[in-house]
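Progress narrative, work stream C.
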Amino acid sequence: MKRKPENTCTDAQRGTHMAKANHIAGLKFKYHYLVALPIVLLLIVAIYIKATENKQWMLQVEAPETKNNSSSECNLFRGKWVLDNQSYPLYKERKCLFLADEFACEKYGRKDLKYQNWRWQPHQCDLPRFNATSLLNRLRGKRLVFVGDSLNRNQWDSLVCLVESSIPSSSKSRQFIGNLFTFKAIEYNVSIDFYWSPLLVESNSDHPLNHSLPDRIVRVQAIEKHARHWTDSDIIIFNTYLWWLRPKMKVLWGSFESPDGIYKEIDMLRSYEMALKTWSDWLEINVNRSRTQLYFVSISPAHLRGDEWGTSANQNCYKETEPIFQKGYWESETNQKMTRVVESAIEELKSRGLEVQMLNITQLSEYRKDAHPSIYRKQRVAKTEDQLLNPTSYADCAHWCLPGVPDAWNEILYAYIIQYSNIR
């Protein structure tokens, strides 16, 4: 019987074999590590970029810009105007089919068009480039409505101009029914509306055309007549300011039809508070918190006193062609007390679990004395000979030419809508 050969491998040989095996395993591990490392790094970078995109538009409503203000986060409302005639305007006035004549300054004779070429640049980040198709896709099947006075109408016209050029003629429509102005992007099932309600609550200035009355009356506790037109909205952008600018308001308790109504003149600021209380109470009870985004647009400033930016006291925005470059410039006529009333109402709603985002466009608009229609708009009433000899007497220094400043407001709104969609 043959004996099996003995294992003649020495301890030294066995050690050599084990070392080789360990070396090969080490090489395999290093290879897999080197292959996986770039993938892991790419994933980390992608997650960081996504987080940064979502964070960069998170901002706080702040007081007028001063030299001492600072913020480690991006604030879309603090920045400067940069001349950019390569990228701006975002649309051509003559190609916006639905632009109201009140804002069509080029059509009504304005020759200097530099006001169209300024881009709002926040200090610590960039606004996302406005993309009409992206916005319409985000809004697919939804309703966005601006509620308020003619400055909100100005912003509505701007947003319609920004999106309508990307929609075929057969797939868009516009109609006016009473106080409700509607633009529809039919293919997307999107409705972008404006509802005329200049004081938010009921008033004798609620008619969409015949509202310039000498004796203004407001029902500070009545809002349902208007609010029922907003209830089904997905995004609501409110404003109210211009129509409150008088020392006292005549307030009505009761209806306009009733002979038993009680009328009382009340300090404007107090009546403004009462109206916003009615507005906020309605929101708290009626808004679908899981569905509806709420915004409030701050004061849109007028430029009425040339002596405040270095010209004569009797000069206003007429013939102005350049922005104001003084950091933190603030028109003395801009009522900061009214801003504080709005901020207080929004804070109160927040304490009740309802978020309203302030679109604090006041400071960025303060710089733009050059961008108002002035005399370059459709005049609803014929001007007298004396007025024609003194154009400053009828220059519109409250509204804005389009393309122009309200486009920047809507670029900021667009950033918020995109951010909200990313978070959800």
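Work stream C, second folded protein:
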Amino acid sequence: MASPLLSSPALLSMIRHKPELISPSQATPHELKPLSDLDDQEGLHFRFPFLFFYPNSPPIGGREDPVRVVKEALGKALVYYYPQYQRIREGPNGKLVVDCTAEGILFVEADADISLEELGDSVRPPCGFVDEVLCDVAGSGGIIGCPLLLVQVTRLKCGGFILGIRVSHAISDTFGLRQFLKAAAELARGAHAPPRLPVWQREILCARDPPRATCRHPEFEDVIDDARSAPMTLDTKNMVHRSLPHHLVSKSSTYEVLTACLWKCHTIALEIDPDDVVRLTCVINARGQRGLGVPPGYYGNTSVYATVLSKAGHLCSSPLGYAVELVKKAKEMVSEEYVRSSIDVLVLKGRPKYTTVWNFLVADATKVGFEEADFGWGKPAYGSVAGALPLISFYVKNRTRKGEEGIVVPIMLPERVMRRFLEELAKMTDEGTAGDDDYGEDSTMIRSCL
């Protein structure tokens, strides 16, 4: 049977040491570095939580203390990524800048009286002990004037460790954090310099002069706040719906089918008026987009929102292929001009937050490559986003104890809505709620012939 979800400090006995500030191992420049217009949008004014669980696999040369190894590696990496340990200030017209005054990142050392094996499946989202393994000391909330990076290293009694990170989303996205962690990991294993030197150049993704909206961007219309709700995780394998047309089966990616299926179930579960307009917003990384000129080594935000609309009633009553086609349309929207238009709209509208009204917002983190962050203990047993956020779900890689590859989808919905969501998901997939004991009662398998 799956291990019980640890959700109480009583189940996870922790000893936290006093927080400290870590600075680079060498002197770095003192200067002001403006963020891009993608970086400082209101929707990114939060700390992104990540967890990495490392097994007991001591580095070559003998047993090492993971706290010391990670701390020293971060100090070395910050020489190259020195804006990461500074503070964000607000300039004229709300423009954010990084004030490089050598104030340091926050670091906490901790010990837990538990092994990685005992944690079992609870390492995957939704991790029930996030607050114990992610530091968030008083006074560190928000992003203005606060540490941009909060790091906690928790030793496990088995010799493994947990690396918990909160990073200001305004300074970096998932790919930027991966690049930073990979650099630190390479330095921890004896490299003399990062495998790829970081590039700032945030001006590349600033608005044109004058800014001009050339595309429609419904993701920035009718902004309201969503209520917070309870988390749940779906375990998925490659999937396809039984009624999906053959031409879509052969031409659709797992992401497209999975997103379409979840969006439709999400809409049905919310019991939205059939005449209301619902949104699907896909977070699309534009790093490889031709013409943008984003260089290798760039570690700022490069993702834009691609939003498609549908009448709720039409989405709910149509075959899944209809939703799949809309997902494809969202992905195809993102051209160089669309990215430039998105940045311009952010400036023209005062850097607004994306809309949440009847909006299902998803981001794919399965190809980020967090498994490359090897500090000498091997690849993490799990390493990615800590779980769902109130307004967005992430797709993350997962490997079962049988070695099967899949996708984990943390999602947050009110309890009654969640029940309806699972019922609809069971109707639309080849199997309903899984009975496989590699998964908890809160998991649903979505199987496929893709």
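The chain has a mean pLDDT of 85. No further action is required on this item.
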